[in-house]
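Cross-posting from the chemistry board since nobody answered there.

I work mostly on the small-molecule side, so proteins are not my area. We synthesized flavin-adenine dinucleotide and want a rough idea of how it might sit in this target. Sequence and SMILES are below. Is it possible to get a predicted 3D structure of the two together?
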Amino acid sequence: MKTEYDIVIVGAGPAGLSAAIAAAESGERILILDNNPQAGGQIWRAGPIFPDPELAQQTYRQIQTKPNIEFMFGAKIVAAPFTGQLLVERAHDSLNVTYRQLILCTGARELFLPFPGWTLPGVTGAGGLQALVKAGTPVHDERIVIAGSGPLLLASADTAKKAGAQVLYVAEQANHSTVRKFALQLWRWPAKIFQALSLPHRLYQPDSYVVEAIGQERLERVRLQTPKGIIEVECDRLAYGFGLIPNIQLGQLLGCQIKDQAIVVDEYQRSSQPQVFAAGECTGFGGSELAIVEGAIAGYAAIAQYEKARQFFAKKQRYQRFATLLQKSFKLRSELKTLARPQTIFCRCEDVRFDQVAERANWIDAKLHTRCGMGACQGSTCATAAACLFDWPLSSARPPLLPTRVKSLMSMTTCSLNQK
Ligand SMILES: Cc1cc2nc3c(=O)[nH]c(=O)nc-3n(C[C@H](O)[C@H](O)[C@H](O)COP(=O)(O)OP(=O)(O)OC[C@H]3O[C@@H](n4cnc5c(N)ncnc54)[C@H](O)[C@@H]3O)c2cc1C
């Protein structure tokens, strides 16, 4: 099955939706593809007890007035067999989607670093906990510890609290003075102050990090390094995350230039590849406001409305300054790189231990000798952890990007033969 569009946008988060609204002014045929079953990306996830936030509702209403925007959900991009073409796999079929312009708005994912006990049931990502709770996982009366780094910890604590959980501790690895300096700068972005004030901070403890998750069948307690020394907290869940890592695999596959683990773009969000734009957190993390502005610039630039795109430059600069402050303030401390013990699981898909990976020379060597990164998640957790812990260069992306049905791969072969 072949489907042709003028503009294809990958990712229906704030950046992708904003890009679509801008580009739709051209009247061209636009497709937004997303792996998720609904729009909203990471921040605008809704569920049984979490309605869409007002800004998301406004955005969806705007999209409804644009008949030239189509959505395709549950659609994962597996390969890019030719320039201007993507191989997309859905639950029951696969199809080749063609585009004239492509806008990558693939967002970011959490960075997980291994520590003893991190694979116990009851331990999830901080954003992962949010996603579970918003999707309806009951956490009422559960005792939850949240640990790691960055504002996502507070957002996660807020979501858990609203769902009736008892948040016992929010452990932020950055030190007191850095967090204080960060908070004192927030007056420059009033919306951010409002967000910060709406989140609980009584239990927020800088200079603290998780050193071990302990339990037999599942998590029973967490050992934390705090300013008062090591403490143990009994809990039902631990949600942790050490910041965000841009999702760049599709950009890598398309040959886009990558720097600092993000897709490199110019002022109009153009990547180094002709026809390919990128916006939002795949170009570096910086929050939803920056993602929306970058999406609008990419959307207008894709339809050659450069004057309209330029109208967003000042706003972009303002939120870019917030992104820079965020990255500076929540830099990871070196102790986090030494938490794993030799026997700690490093690749949970293939049950590979930390010592097996640590003795290898680089990522390819580790993969070939241990099967690390060759399981269901295709290294999305352990490859980024390896890059962070061992300073190994990022692995390159190869098709298929995700586990794929043989039938889908065959459609790629048929397509290549037809092209010849
Ligand atoms: C787990 C998590 C939770 C977060 N929670 C918050 C929060 O509560 N508050 C906050 O301020 N910020 C939060 N953030 C930060 C948040 O990601 C951004 O501020 C904002 O959502 C970025 O918007 P975006 O459009 O760039 O990306 P996203 O919102 O991440 O959207 C990217 C979309 O692209 C899709 N996608 C990616 N790759 C592919 C592919 N190959 N094929 C098909 N679809 C693909 C994804 O499914 C996703 O829907 C969270 C981040 C993460 C990772």
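Reply from a structural biologist on the board:
Welcome over. Reading the output above for you: The CA atoms of residues 114 and 400 lie 26 Å apart. The mean pLDDT is 93. Happy to explain the token format if needed.
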